[in-house]
Amino acid sequence: MTDVVQRGLYYDELEPGTRYLHRPGRTLTEADNVLFSTLTMNTQALHLDAAWSADQPFGQRLVNSMMTLAVLVGASVTQLTQGTIVANLGFTEVRFPHPLFHGDTLYSETVVVAKRPSTSRPGQGVVTLAHTGRNQDGAVVAEATRTVLFWTKEAAP
């Protein structure tokens, strides 16, 4: 019998210009949004108060943008970083160009933008990833550039 362990990709396996489509999508519910907002102590009325939000420009509550970012990146884990990441190094250029509403489905994709061997950590490499989230209609709801430190296959523990 052969054992197969689910893992992400090592530094050596990532190629700039490759786009990964992360499936399945994740439909975000009212319960998800309220729980995330209260767990993170974000009491913004746009996430929690339906009556107040009804009189605001979008006419309804918005999914917490930090939850959108977390699900966007989280959807990439099994395909890219499960067991192959050393650390997140940072996020830049985070944008939310279109709102996400209760009942919308978030579809995530990632493009490998660049990679280079680490100059200070042998056996590891720095990879720049561009994450994009779209709703069920294809509208871009989130974008983020992320820098990640990966293991090389040879050096991984």
From TrEMBL:
Ranges of residues in domain MaoC-like: 15-132
A Pfam family the protein falls into: MaoC_dehydratas
InterPro entries, alphabetized: HotDog_dom_sf, MaoC-like_dom, MCH/BMMD
SUPFAM superfamilies, per the entry: Thioesterase/thiol ester dehydrase-isomerase (SSF54637)
Signal peptide: none
Family: Belongs to the enoyl-CoA hydratase/isomerase family.
Protein name: MaoC family dehydratase
Organism: Cellulomonas algicola
